[in-house]
């Protein structure tokens, strides 16, 4: 912890560590196309990916397209997705956005941040995930986990997720954003959890972590 690194130097070293640990980055949410990914990401709000992946097979067996989803009742959608939490809000959002995709976008998930963020239940983070993982557009979705790690690694001030996203986009090359955000998520789950974290044993915090972690 004696050597002081600039944020840019840390970013370079952290990129190397993450690439060595996670050369492959499979998308954590099971899906078949942009629409099922959109629904899965919406369901993942305040819910684990593992739980979403247990729920979506049942949901998509009933409705895997916007056309099929609007044939369901909101109450039936809610009953299926209840284990994901916030089911009243999420079920209505899924039903309503399916209508909008059919009415305004010819049944296809729109390929722009503006159009995605205009859909019910779709915020900037969800839109960023869909744009990056479904369409390959460079984006840096920042969830609470990435926000926490960026602060721990002193790559951002931790003021808010918007600031963190801007800081990370400045530090890391655009061409690696889509892969890097998944690598950070994987690393956080395996080495840098919110609770029970030992910075001395963490491959990144032990070298580049915020000093207050060690008090």
In short:
With 215 residues, the chain is mainly alpha-helical.
Report the CATH architecture of the largest domain. Orthogonal Bundle
List low-confidence stretches: none
- Strand-and-helix sequence, N→C? HHHHHHHHHHHH
Major sheet: none
Gyration radius, to the nearest Å?
19 Å
Could you say which overall geometry the principal axes of the C-alpha atoms support? elongated
Helix/strand-derived class?
A: mainly alpha
- Can you identify the CATH class of the largest domain? Mainly Alpha
Number of strands: 0
Q: Number of helix segments?
A: 12
CATH-defined fold name of the largest domain: Endonuclease III, domain 1
First CA to last CA: what distance?
Answer: 13 Å
* Count of spatially separate domains: 2
Supply the CATH superfamily name of the largest domain: Hypothetical protein, domain 2
As a percent range, the share of helical residues equals 55-70%
Mean of pLDDT: 95
Regarding quaternary structure, how should these chains be classified? single chain
Portion of residues in beta strands equals under 5%
Explain the overall architecture.
With 215 residues, the chain is an all-alpha fold. It has two domains: 7-25 and 140-214, Helix-hairpin-Helix base-excision DNA repair enzymes (C-terminal) (Endonuclease Iii, domain 2); 34-133, Hypothetical protein, domain 2 (Endonuclease III, domain 1, Orthogonal Bundle). Helix content is 57%, strand content 0%. Helix 2 packs antiparallel against helix 8, helix 5 (74-81) packs across helix 6 (87-104) and helix 9 packs across helix 10. It starts with 6 loop residues before the first helix and ends in a 7-residue tail after the last helix. The model has no long low-confidence stretch (mean pLDDT 95).
